[in-house]
TrEMBL record, chains A, B:
It comes from Microbacterium sediminis. The lineage of its organism: Bacteria, Bacillati, Actinomycetota, Actinomycetes, Micrococcales. This is Branched-chain amino acid aminotransferase. PANTHER family: AMINO-ACID AMINOTRANSFERASE (PTHR42743), AMINODEOXYCHORISMATE LYASE (PTHR42743:SF11). Keywords: Aminotransferase, Transferase. NCBIfam families: PRK07849.1-3. GO terms for biological process: carboxylic acid biosynthetic process. Belongs to the class-IV pyridoxal-phosphate-dependent aminotransferase family. It comes from the Bacteria. One of its GO terms (molecular function) is transaminase activity. GO terms for cellular component: cytosol. InterPro entries: Aminotrans_IV, Aminotransferase-like, BCAT-like_C, BCAT-like_N, Class-IV_PLP-Dep_Aminotrnsfr.
Length: 300, 300
């Protein structure tokens, strides 16, 4: 039986001055009924989330994740979350995690809509789950095969149409899940979304880093994709180790010609790309191992 | 206190031969905890739905809605629903609705994922809610103002990239909800999505019909938008009344020059457009009233 837990979190205003949140964080059975069928998360994917890795009881990059959650809330017209309260919930969950790796998911839905469209919304609804992470050793050590998939949007869509919520990590992930199924149908492990005008975006649940000579690049996070928390950490480590890093608009063709590439995410960490659309990429096993060792060290 | 109810529906295989479904449909409190926090509907908007109007106890166009649900399931790699079981649930809910108008929502999620990504999924989860409909008299009689909003996709996206799930009615509706908020910020009642290359699609929760001379047109349902069940009924009625109907790729500019236009949907029914992006459109109050009278009559 693997470890799991869940908390329901009573929403409090972002400016609530209290510093003890114990009374607002309630353990619940992760398998028991907990959300009403009128919650807008389950009805419309109307909410936001973060996935936070826990390594030996330490939640990784909590600050960056809570910052991104607040950013997603602003983009989605959701109430600003109470960062200290959510941090307390994350820390309480992490403290219960067994040694090794776990994943905490923090979710905020717009709330419960009684009586259908046009009626009042009571919200938000906030909850957290924690579970032992799957074993990602194979992806970290041997790398993964990816295929590129058209995200349908051109490079200008995010700036032109903020209602597309392209920089927000929303609960509306049906397309991300469909892309992963399509990748598996094509014999790959993961997908990389590209724009309809031929630029690289991100994976459905990970950020791309590629190497060109000694420089490490990730697609411009302005518009169209999420700023990756693990990618930010990876860039810190790369810079410390003397590797220049940068953000660029990266044409899809540049991915095929990369000197190496990785998908990085909070749970799987760094997975080297062995193949992109069936073309082999060079793999640097030593650098990947060193990067993953860093990503497994405690970081705030 | 307005009327509401909810049912949890035990999933059975699509080819299950039974004809009595009473034991598989359980009334639940629509406000009580019912779904676990591990359900993929609330975690990833990973599921599909239909909204069915009930008029004086009669569920409207149930067959067309169940057909579209099955279509959405196929596009989303979800198990085929048992149509007769879901019809029985819809009829049982409709029979409890008070006189007047109600809305039934039928939802199917991929199920519950224990232990996070990569672990097994137990599903699907199926539920239904019914609630008294809001009063839509003003929209039906006086019409609505709309703004056009870029959906970010070009006309070819749906055919090129089926993983975008553009013809499926999924639970990932965060963008649809954000578009409605943007419309209200601009002083309008609703939005009409257009492609990035300038063609009309649909509203976030309704289908467009426009009139050019004596012909009634709706955007081609191939790719990029849902086939509207209410629009199909409206076309039947228009044809019976001697008005030719058709499907076309409609440039956004043609919307401004329309001789009249409506958004049609299962609950609000036909709402004439009085303004598109601030430009006035001709309104035919008599035709709108006659169409709504038809849409309020019992239809299967």
């Amino acid at each position: 039986m693997t470890f799991r837990l869940a908390f329901l979190i009573d929403p409090i205003p972002a400016d609530d001055p209290r510093t003890d949140f114990a009374g607002t964080i309630s353990p619940i059975d992760p398998d028991a009924p907990a959300l009403s069928v009128s919650d807008l998360s389950s009805n419309r994917g109307d909410g936001i989330f973060e996935s936070i890795a826990v390594v030996d009881g330490h939640p990784q990059e909590t600050g960056a994740h809570l910052q991104r959650l607040a950013h997603s809330a602003r983009l989605s017209d959701l109430p600003e979350p109470h960062t200290a309260q959510l941090r307390a919930a994350v820390e309480a969950a992490a403290a219960q995690c067994p040694p090794g790796e776990c994943t905490i998911r923090l979710l905020l839905s717009r709330g419960v809509q009684h009586g259908g469209p046009g009626q009042g919304i009571h919200g938000p609804t906030i909850w957290l789950t924690a579970a032992q992470a799957p074993d990602n050793t194979a992806a970290r050590e041997n790398g993964i095969k990816v295929v590129t998939l058209d995200r349908g949007y051109d490079s200008g869509a995010a700036a032109r149409a903020p209602w597309l919520l392209l920089g927000a990590k929303t609960l509306s992930y049906a397309v991300n899940m469909a892309a992963l199924r399509e990748a598996r149908r094509r014999g790959a492990d993961d997908a990389i979304f590209v724009t309809s005008d031929g630029y690289v975006l991100e994976a459905p649940t990970a950020t791309l880093i590629l190497r060109r000579g000694d420089t490490f690049l990730t697609p411009e996070p302005t518009g169209g994709l999420l700023q990756g928390t693990t990618q930010l950490s990876a860039f810190d480590w790369l810079e410390e180790n003397g590797h220049p890093t940068g953000y660029e608009h990266i044409p899809t063709a540049a991915l095929y010609d990369a000197d190496a590439a990785w998908l990085v995410s909070s749970t799987r960490l760094a997975a080297a790309l062995t193949h992109v659309d069936g073309r082999e990429l060079p793999v640097d096993r030593d650098l990947t191992a060193a990067l993953n060792a860093y990503l497994l060290s405690p970081r705030d």
